[in-house]
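Dear H.,

Thanks for agreeing to be a second pair of eyes. The structure we're designing against is below in token form, covering all 153 positions.
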């Protein structure tokens, strides 16, 4: 909720509640007994943002590190030592599966989610994900960095 407080213009209380509810619903896929395969790319700078204060940030980082230990869930950190970052500032969800024509990208911005399934946009976002895959630390090293940042709070 704290990250939505930094949005300009300020969101209404209802809009904040709806966005928080959407994010909580989205997390339900991780709570399933057999979650779908999931890869998350997070820039190190995002790990160090302290929305909601140190305690909230620490709990979020511990939650992230804990879930990264589950089968089928990889969390990969792009370290600050990497030069540049295509698509910086945008939360991106790329959903694909057995039917390529159903692939969808969700961009999560301060103004709400945007969805696209256009081939040109999917190609662009796939290139961003490929770049992040090459630039990110391996899962175990990423988890270690997440825990290090949490301990530093």
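And this is the sequence the design step returned. I haven't edited it by hand at all.
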């Amino acid at each position: 909720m704290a990250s939505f407080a930094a949005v300009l213009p300020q969101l209404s209380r209802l809009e904040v509640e709806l966005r928080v509810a959407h994010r909580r619903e989205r997390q339900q896929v991780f709570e399933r007994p057999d979650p779908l395969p999931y890869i998350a790319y997070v820039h190190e700078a995002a790990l160090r943002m302290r929305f909601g204060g140190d305690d909230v940030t620490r709990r979020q980082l511990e939650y992230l590190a804990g879930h990264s230990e589950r089968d089928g869930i990889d969390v990969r950190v792009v370290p600050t030592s990497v030069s540049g970052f295509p698509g910086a500032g945008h939360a991106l969800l790329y959903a694909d599966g057995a039917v390529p024509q159903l692939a969808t990208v969700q961009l999560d911005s301060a103004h709400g989610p945007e969805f696209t399934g256009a081939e040109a946009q999917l190609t662009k976002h796939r290139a961003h994900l490929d770049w992040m895959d090459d630039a990110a630390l391996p899962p175990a090293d990423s988890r270690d960095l997440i825990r290090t940042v949490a301990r530093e709070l």
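Two observations from my side: The mean pLDDT is 87. The helical segments are 2-5, 13-31, 44-47, 54-67, 119-135, 139-152.

Warmly,
E.
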